[in-house]
């Protein structure tokens, strides 16, 4: 291939090979490999195919190498003038992506790269190509994802923060003879939760559903200090399930003077059955601390339920509820055992 690239001596080839291995710039590494492939006798078509690039790129890189040597492989965009994607531009783009297009005069509620280009031009005066916008989005770590639906807390910001601070203070000043736990319920469905999974090109994995759905429910309590999970099971998500959990906690922590339970405002936590249970001698050991409404992110057991779905129920292949519940129990027991081994906890 002497008409494509000059005949390279063994020392020159070795130097280019070392540079290609050490290079952290993917595009520069490709240019090194183009020259090396051509020097080894590959045709431009074979080189383009093996590196997944267009043949015109091979000819362009070869010409630059012939004219300028190894220096011709370096990206020459640094000669284009001042870098447009500077820290100020990227910081502004970060704030823009965090917001909604509706806040910037657009009628469309989701961003496109073209809308970002125009809005950034108005804010910074900088014009860039749509491909450059893709690089800018990559540099700030932006991704296309599914927004999380939520409901605004009806409390005032002051009242909400006051309650959260009270719970935080409780945890920070908790006496040694008391225990605090985050409580919540979770649904277990025989019909699998469908979630993202890796697939090869041209494949779409299939998840077989039983059709007639069955449900089971767990009520769980996560120890705020040790991370241990205590749970009970039921066929209905009602006050009886919650009371069963309280009784389980009463037996599990016989030495605790007070058992603090941090929980949401779900209706099963406020029934007359619960009130009468808390009025008993055993029930007086409990202190319920209700989170502000619609604040699931402040209930730390939610992450445990997310892990349960990710490791057991999402895209599962169980044909019976008994098998699914067996897998659920096995996962939660293993979780507690691993926690104990990792931290040396007596749980």
Q: How do you describe this structure in short?
A:
With 347 residues, this protein is of the alpha/beta class. Strand 2 and strand 3 form a beta hairpin. The chain contains twelve helices and five strands.
Secondary-structure topology with pairs:
Layout: H1 10-22, H2 26-39, H3 44-51, H4 55-68, H5 87-98, H6 113-124, H7 130-139, H8 157-172, E1 178-189, E2 215-223, E3 229-234, H9 239-252, E4 258-263, H10 272-278, E5 286-290, H11 301-313, H12 321-343
Parallel strand pairs: 1-4, 4-5
Antiparallel strand pairs: 1-2, 2-3
Structure keywords:
5-stranded mixed sheet, Nucleotidyltransferase, domain 5, alpha/beta, single chain, 347 residues
CATH C-level name of the largest domain: Alpha Beta
Q: How confident is the prediction overall: mean pLDDT?
A: 89
Q: What's the tally of helices?
A: 12
Looking at this structure, what is the CATH superfamily of the largest domain?
Answer: Ribonuclease H-like superfamily/Ribonuclease H
User: What is the strand arrangement across the widest sheet?
Assistant: 3-2-1-4-5
| Total strands | 5
Number of domains: 3
Classification by helices and strands: alpha/beta
Radius of gyration, in Å, reads 30 Å
Largest sheet: 5 strands, mixed
Describe the oligomeric state of these chains in a short phrase.
Answer: single chain
At the fold tier of CATH, the topology name of the largest domain is: Nucleotidyltransferase, domain 5
Distance between the termini: 71 Å
């Amino acid at each position: 291939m002497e008409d494509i690239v000059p005949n390279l001596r063994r020392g020159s080839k070795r130097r280019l090979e070392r540079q290609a291995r050490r290079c952290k710039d993917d595009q520069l590494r490709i240019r090194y490999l183009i020259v090396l492939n051509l020097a080894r006798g590959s045709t431009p078509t074979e080189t383009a195919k093996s590196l997944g690039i267009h043949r015109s790129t091979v000819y362009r890189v070869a010409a630059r190498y012939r004219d300028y040597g190894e220096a011709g492989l370096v990206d020459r965009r640094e000669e284009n003038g001042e870098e447009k994607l500077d820290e100020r531009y990227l910081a502004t783009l970060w704030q823009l992506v965090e917001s909604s297009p509706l806040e910037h005069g657009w009628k469309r509620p989701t961003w496109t790269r073209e809308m970002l280009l125009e809005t950034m031009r108005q804010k910074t005066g900088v014009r860039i190509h749509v491909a450059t916008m893709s690089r800018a989005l990559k540099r700030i770590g932006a991704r296309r994802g599914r927004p999380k639906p939520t409901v605004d807390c009806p409390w005032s910001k002051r009242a909400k923060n006051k309650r959260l601070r009270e719970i935080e203070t409780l945890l920070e000043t908790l006496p040694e003879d008391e225990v605090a736990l985050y409580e919540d319920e979770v649904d277990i469905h025989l019909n699998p939760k469908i979630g993202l999974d890796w697939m090869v090109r041209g494949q779409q994995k299939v998840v077989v559903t039983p059709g007639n759905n069955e449900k089971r429910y767990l009520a769980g309590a996560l120890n705020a200090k040790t991370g241990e999970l205590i749970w009970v099971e039921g066929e209905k998500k009602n006050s009886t399930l919650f009371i069963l959990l309280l009784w389980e906690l009463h037996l599990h922590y016989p030495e605790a003077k007070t058992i603090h339970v941090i929980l949401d405002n779900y209706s099963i936590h406020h029934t007359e059955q619960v009130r009468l249970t808390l009025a008993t001698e055993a029930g007086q050991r409990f202190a319920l601390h209700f989170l502000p409404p619609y604040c699931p992110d402040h209930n730390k057991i939610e992450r445990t339920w997310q892990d349960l779905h990710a490791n057991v129920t999402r895209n599962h292949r169980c044909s019976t509820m008994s098998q699914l519940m067996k897998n659920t129990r096995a996962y939660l027991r293993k979780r507690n055992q691993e926690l104990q081994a990792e931290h040396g906890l007596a749980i």
